[in-house]
């Protein structure tokens, strides 16, 4: 529960900013609909895209909004993921958030503007309100979860194949308390991932989910130390990228189809067999020959193990301090 203890109002040249300070220290609201030059520049860079060798890195860059996504950012994210899908040199992507949080959902300021107009444009956007969440991304995407990953931000994380979560991060559908419904595939994917009963629990209560529970119920795939989610997600991406991709994608697509579209076991098995392509058969043949002729059998499957990553002394001290505070709690 939020216990609001102080309201501060600051007058600016372009409007008024209201900050609610509460026990959770993260909720803010600004009715100012104008932007400074610095804000406009940040909006231009609201989605960051770069490559680490064959891995595409896509970052949500609105740290002042805890990476809440507005219509402009959602469009840019859709374009970035479409470009990744079209890039034959990149088999896997990592989606992350800049500035301490993955994504706090849909931008409440943008939502208020639309609500005042009586508009539901954010719901009607073809691919989804916070990105291409209403379709299946054609190649694997790993989500690096840090800070807050809530509301539509959690729906965005569910769109990804795998989720690497920092031990201090928070998940949850906190939009429940504000009367905002799920609209980005959350009700579709959540039950398939964690089961009907658990999904209802999270949807009905809108409660916070911490890392240990998230891992136990299957909401995330790995827990890592605070400050390391992006690096460990990239490590995981490299361990997947080294495998032959045609067979990997076939198995992935079959699993997706069987989870959401097949009505019987017979249909599912038939789908698994009939989707075998010439490219998969070629990879299979090469793999058998490699097994017979060489001691090198191909990429090892234990590459998913989290690798130790050298950290500077100052970062080690920060992590140690955060762990000490958690222990006291």
Automatic annotation (TrEMBL):
InterPro entries with a match to the protein in the record: ClpP/crotonase-like_dom_sf, Enoyl-CoA_hydra/iso
In residue numbers, the region (Disordered) covers 292-329
Top-level taxon of origin: Eukaryota
User: Which is a Pfam family this sequence falls into?
Assistant: ECH_1
Similarity comment text for this entry: Belongs to the enoyl-CoA hydratase/isomerase family.
Q: What is this protein called?
A: Enoyl-CoA hydratase
């Amino acid at each position: 529960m939020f216990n609001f203890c102080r309201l501060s109002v600051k007058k600016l040249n372009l409007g008024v900013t209201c900050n609610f300070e509460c026990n959770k220290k993260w909720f803010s609201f600004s009715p100012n609909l104008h932007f400074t030059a610095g804000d406009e520049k940040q909006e231009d860079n609201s989605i960051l895209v770069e490559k680490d060798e064959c891995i595409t890195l896509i970052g949500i860059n609105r740290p002042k909004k805890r990476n809440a996504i507005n219509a402009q950012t959602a469009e840019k994210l859709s374009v970035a993921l479409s470009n990744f899908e079209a890039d034959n040199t990149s088999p896997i992507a990592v989606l992350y958030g800049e500035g301490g949080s993955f994504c706090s959902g849909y931008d409440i300021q943008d939502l208020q503007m639309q609500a005042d107009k009586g508009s539901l444009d954010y719901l009607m956007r073809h691919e989804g309100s916070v990105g291409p969440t209403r379709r299946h991304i054609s190649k694997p995407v790993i989500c690096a979860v840090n800070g807050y990953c809530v509301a539509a931000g959690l729906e965005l994380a569910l769109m990804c194949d795998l989720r690497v979560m920092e031990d201090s991060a928070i998940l949850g559908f906190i939009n429940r308390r504000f009367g905002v419904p799920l609209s980005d595939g959350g009700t579709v994917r959540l039950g398939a991932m964690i089961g009907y009963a658990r999904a209802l629990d999270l949807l009905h209560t809108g409660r916070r989910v911490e890392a240990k529970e998230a891992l136990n119920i299957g909401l995330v795939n790995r827990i890592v130390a605070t400050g390391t989610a992006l690096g460990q997600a990239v490590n995981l991406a490299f361990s997947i990228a080294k495998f032959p991709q045609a067979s990997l994608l076939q198995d992935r697509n079959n699993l997706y189809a069987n989870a959401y579209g097949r009505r019987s076991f017979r249909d599912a098995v038939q789908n698994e067999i009939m989707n075998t392509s010439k490219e998969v058969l070629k990879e299979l043949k090469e793999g058998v020959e490699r097994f017979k002729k060489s001691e090198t059998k191909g990429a090892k499957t234990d590459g998913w193990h989290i690798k130790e990553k050298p950290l500077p002394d100052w970062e080690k001290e920060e992590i140690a301090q955060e762990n000490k505070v958690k222990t006291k709690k």
